[in-house]
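COMPLEX REQUEST
Ligand: pyridoxal-5'-phosphate
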Amino acid sequence: MPYRRYAWVEIDSGAIAHNVAALKARTPAGTRFMAVVKADGYGHGAAQTARAALGAGADRLGVATVEECVSLREAGVSARLHILSEPPVESIPLLLEHDVVPTVTSRAFATALSREAARLDRETSYHLKIDTGMNRIGVRAEDAADMAIRLDGLPGVVMEGAFTHFATADVLADWDFDRQMERFGAALDEMKTEGVRPRIVHAANSAATVLHPEAHFDLVRCGIAIYGLHPSAATRGSIDLRPAMSVKSRVSFVKRVGLGDGVSYGLTWHAGAPTTIATLPLGYADGVHRLLSNRMDVLIGGRRCRQVGNVCMDQLMVEVPAGLEVSPGDEAVLVGEQGGERIVMNELAEAAGTINYEMACGFALRMERIHL
Ligand SMILES: *Cc1c(COP(=O)(O)O)cnc(C)c1O
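STATUS: Structure written out below.
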């Protein structure tokens, strides 16, 4: 039996390699490329994504947590590895053990990192995060030079890079984006005047990599686009990305229902005429958000079937359109292609009132992943 259950996720590694190459082609030769593989590679598998991306020219990886660093190292990934926010001070020994480049946003962390590195007679790099307007994390742009000078003399640590992150990179011709660019430029100029020159300056996420060449600097940090998903409508049409994730299942049960019969918890849907209902063995615990109830389609036999009734934890039901013969064991596609029909991640994300980023992450909750 190919699968332990009749619901699974397929990942096309070739698509990830294609997307990395397409993004790299947008940046000048010599620009470094960080593949962002946090949250288990946006649900696509961190280690497998890392391998595909590194094979296609990525030269370093970005993650969100220390745990993610450790599991990549345990999976045998030896590439340069960044953690994109300042981790707990208590994790510093682990960071050094696994050769992780942390983000620094506080003097306390930098000092503790320096102390531990000096104790081990090591030298370790960090990147300074500068807040230019997103107001999430980072040293305020106007304080960046001052902070850089204070950290400059610490033994055992080197500021290899300085970076910022955009709040609105996915919009074209945006005043807030321009303001962030100006503040970042001013902070870097001030640092230069004070004699602090980070070797690697970076700012661009996927959207900025595609839409804002002026934000490429020395390195780009691409997440969503390496998975073949667009960060916003603005990038669609301007770069050829191939979605890497498909979500598939097999029909587990088929039945006829009569006029007026209800389906699923709460009986929120009733048959307007005698019809056929097929059950699929996946639900909200697999990432098919309950908000999608009565609002999504599934492909069976190359045809769109409307999902009906509330999505359950482990199962969901669809109405089989007239003229389509469906039997248990037939393949159903929730995301991907079947018989020339296609459902993209965005269709589900929009129906659930969220973004493709969150939708993709959700499909990693419980389903087995097959890497093609
Ligand atoms: C997640 C993240 C990225 C990647 O963003 P995408 O929009 O997925 O390309 C880049 N930089 C930082 C700091 C991040 O947290």
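REMARKS: The first helix runs from residue 13 to 24. The first strand starts at residue 7 and ends at 11.
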